[in-house]
Amino acid sequence: MKKVLLLFGLLCMIVFASAQAPAFDPLMPETYVSVTVNKSQLYELSRHFSVDAVTRHADGTCDVRLCVGRLEYDAFQATGIPFTVVSAPKPQVNMASSYGQLIQQWNRYPTYNTYLATMDTFRSQYPQFCEIDTILAQTPGGHKILVAHISNNLQDKGTKPSFFYTSTIHGDEPVGYYMMIRLIYYLLHNYATNAQVQELVDNVDIWICPIENPDGTYHTSNNSLNESPYSTRYNHHGVDLNRSYPEAGAVTATRDLEPEVQAMMSFGAEHHFTMSANMHGGAEVFNYPWDTWPSYQRPHADDNWWRYVGHKFADTCQHYSSNYMNEEDDGVTEGGDWYVITGSRQDYYNYYLQCREVTIEVSDNKVLPSNYLPYYWGYIYRSFLNYLKESTYGFQGVVTDSVTGLPLEATVVVENHDDNVSFVSSHLPAGDYHRPIKGGTYQVTYSAPNYYPKTLTLTATDGHATLQDVALVPYGYGVEDPDKPVVDIYPNPTSGELHVVLPAEMSEVVMTLYDAAGRRVCQQILSQSESVVPMQELPSGVYLLRLTKGGQTVCQQKVVR
To answer: Topology of 394-472 in CATH?
Structure first.
């Protein structure tokens, strides 16, 4: 978390109130306060404190709700900004003390032990589709950060896109926590009877982490949660985890990383997620990147795609409740246009991991009364499914070595569109890439170290996938030359003999066969128009056949035995 040392810039802009500011309760881990400031003051506040909500007025002023932690009390009071303490409303919350009680009517929040038991029940009841992994075995407060892995093939994702849903990085925003548990249940429970669910589980490698900050949610007790300070926004160390990631665009990382942050960074880097989303509370809006910059300063390269996907998400919610998910631009905002923050998880995943992550504020009330939970689930769950499905659209395929046929790690850049952080990559072991993009025609370049780049013209259609496999030619093997004589090699694949037919004007050609490791396994001189290369005794696999004459390569081709 960024420590507040000097607020000179802020102090210069603020007109000090003559009245004595109220004092903070030093026993409180954090306090929510309300202030009224202008736009420039909001910018400075957001750089140093945790902005929780913003309401703009026609005269240019903003009503701002801030969360001020115990370590920040003195620094905030030193600004001299008049403030009022926002009292926690403490809505009616019922807790589920068992898995059965949780799913009976879905109108309770889980106790911590119920959460652990629920995740274990998912694993034991649906072992063929669900396993529970651990992102962090022990938080500073002694809890676990768990993730459900859902797929029709848990051991091998193949070429499917990977997708990540998470929630409650702020511990006093548990509505998304409830929704993510229910989403896991919905996917597993409906796989056999719901075609949409089956398609998602079969075609996307799904990961869902219901709660990122259990220390905050269960700050007071493992058996209860509610508005701060019963549950806290901050983690066990008094840190806002959503201001604690390495800053997007920073030359060097200067902040200490909390254990929860480091674990999420490592987990994201390991799984190469195509898309992700994290759930918050306190507003109802689809907040897309960047948080660090307003759109006039630095729009995301895929700003048009984000707006398209965001309005699709919000419009679906509004179809089921006309008063839901309609804040800012009809339920959608660019993060920095709402208010600028640095160190968000959203920006880290987008900037450093080339993932498409969004922040979804799922309810105006940070904690909904328990009996409201089923209604809000009904408003939003279809949007969760639709957003998940977006990871299967756009450009996708496999990048391989044209000689060996083996998969490659390559960079995929949309020309005159991508910047230096919006490109995607293909990843081993399958060599698959996934590039969500707004419908249109683009020039796409595939490149890898020691390979000739290849640029193709591809057309994307909204709501559909454009499949494009690419084979890159390694340096030293030249590129295809249309003036070279045509050589016919068949059958390929072969289970035994391989026939090589040379043009009539060609003879005394040296044929060399290499295995996938580049070892020469066979060599002979072809002096007839059609020759037979015996491969019966060779192991199954991919081979490279090269024909040379006078030291010059005439033809080379991948052969499958």
So the answer is: Immunoglobulin-like (2.60.40)
Spatial CB neighbours of 399, under 8 Å, sequence gap ≥ 6: 407, 408, 409, 410, 412, 426, 431, 433, 446, 448, 469, 470, 471, 472
SS3 call for 208: strand
| pLDDT, position 486 | 63
* Run means of pLDDT, 10 residues per run, the chain, 561 residues: 34 36 75 89 84 86 88 86 85 96 98 98 98 98 98 96 98 98 98 97 98 98 93 95 90 74 96 98 97 95 98 98 95 95 95 96 96 98 98 98 92 91 94 98 91 93 97 74 61 84 79 69 82 83 74 68 73
Looking at domain 95-392, what is its CATH homologous superfamily? Answer: Zn peptidases (3.40.630.10)
Q: Which pTM was predicted?
A: 0.81
CATH number of this structure's domain 8-85, picked from the four choices 3.30.70, 3.30.479, 2.30.30, 3.20.20? 3.30.70
User: How is 147-181 classified by DSSP, letter by letter?
Assistant: EEEE-S-SS--TTPPEEEEEE-SSTT--HHHHHHH
Query: What is the model's pLDDT at position 14?
Result: 35
pLDDT at position 20, please? Answer: 46
Assign 501 to helix, strand or coil. Answer: strand
- Which pLDDT does position 251 carry in this prediction? 54
In the chain, what are the helix, strand and coil shares in percent, each to the nearest 5? 25, 30, 45
Instruction: Quote the CA–CA distance of 207 and 162 in Å, as a whole number.
Output: 8
The alpha carbon of 249 is separated from its chain's Cα centroid by a whole number of angstroms, namely 18
Asked if residues 410 and 423 have their Cβ atoms less than 8 Å apart, the reply is: no
Residue 551: CB atoms within 10 A of its CB come to: 6
Where along the chain do the CATH 3.30.70 domains lie? 8-85
Tell me which amino acid residue 154 is: L
- What residue ranges of the chain are covered by domains with CATH 3.40.630.10? 95-392
Q: What is the rounded end-to-end Cα distance, in angstroms, of the chain? A: 57
Could you please state the CATH topology (level 3) that the domain comprising 488-560 is classified under: Immunoglobulin-like (2.60.40)
Dihedral sign computed on CA atoms, order 111, 116, 117, 122: positive
